[in-house]
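Bench log. Compound arrived from synthesis this morning; before running ITC I wanted a structural hypothesis for how zinc ion sits in the protein. Inputs:
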Amino acid sequence: MNATSIFYLIIGILVVDFLLERFLGLLNYTWYSKAIPKELSDVYEPKEYKKSQEYKKINFRFSLISSTLSFLVIILFLHFKGFALVDQIARGFATDQILVALLFFGIIMLASELASLPFSIYSTFVIEEQFGFNTTTLKTFILDKIKSYILTALLGGGILSLIILCYNWAGAHFWWYVWVLILMTSLFMNMFYAKLFVPIFNKQTPLEEGDLKNKISEYAASVGFHINKVFVIDGSKRSTKANAYFSGFGSEKRITLYDTLIEQLTEEEIVAVLAHEVGHYKRNHIIYNLILGTLTTGFTLWLFSLVVNNSLLSQALGVSIPSFHIGLVAFGLLYAPISRLTGIVMNLLSRKFEYQADYYAKATYKKEPLISGLKALSKTSLSNLTPHPAYIWFHYSHPSLQQRITAMNSTTVY
Ligand SMILES: [Zn+2]
């Protein structure tokens, strides 16, 4: 294989990926106007349903335009040897390998952020605003952006520097060390996510004493689940959409409820959503995900270590001086089909876990409040009641609402 054929392979991968996504989107679009399944007939009032149809269509058109533009930009960038140009610019400012790599990725990320900023502004302040979801003020929006740039620069830059240091020190065996490094970082992030990262973006307060707290404690005790940390987060600062999640393990494990969830759901429904989250924990889903994620990372790094020294990768992108960072970019582009496969497998597994967590909530609490709670969440987020099965298969980490309700109403044990 020579550099030119690798170049065309990369273009081919990008084209196939783009066409596949547009095809799936279009399939899904044709199902927007499908009749509502009868078990979901009470989710929306007719007027609200019309509004949800409108929301889906606007988002479909928006993603069609933004993804087509970004696809064209990437193809043109590759055609005009954009990576070689950025590499040259970075080398004009530094000679140290790590500094060049940091500058290189810094420039690429800055450019892609500038290009995507208008879309992000339009999505938040025009589309989400129009449908009454947006509660983000301009100040929050700007502060969020600045905070995430600083976090990305510190964490991303730090990890990239460490990886190149490992590579320089251990040669082709570097992937072992990087694997351990990434595993430790992700364990650390998982453990202290709520303590270190959430406060940067949100305010979280312990759930106040009262009816809801008592109901939660009562349920937790009934399934032998020790949790003394239930927090409420000010999700309403950005959007009316509601959520709940589980994070950390051991002494750091906690359940976080959005304030919007408490507003929109009844106490019984909240306990049922919580029972679903406890189900994930009790069925070891968090551990399985961590193991699978670790294996995938190891496999990716090992594959990367096989080609990182190959100068064909740099040549394929039109760069004359081979380097770790150019190898990384080319590998990232070539890896897309494999990551799509692993993504499909992860989604399959995740949907299976969702059925199990729903079943756990049904078996240890009640199915009715979970069903009505999920319906309320679907309604307030104007979610799609009739997704196309192919679209679900590729993209959904959760089964559709209809699939979940059908499963809970069946006698199947998950
Ligand atoms: Zn779940």
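What the model suggests: The chain has 16 helices and four strands. The first strand starts at residue 204 and ends at 206.
ITC booked for Thursday regardless.
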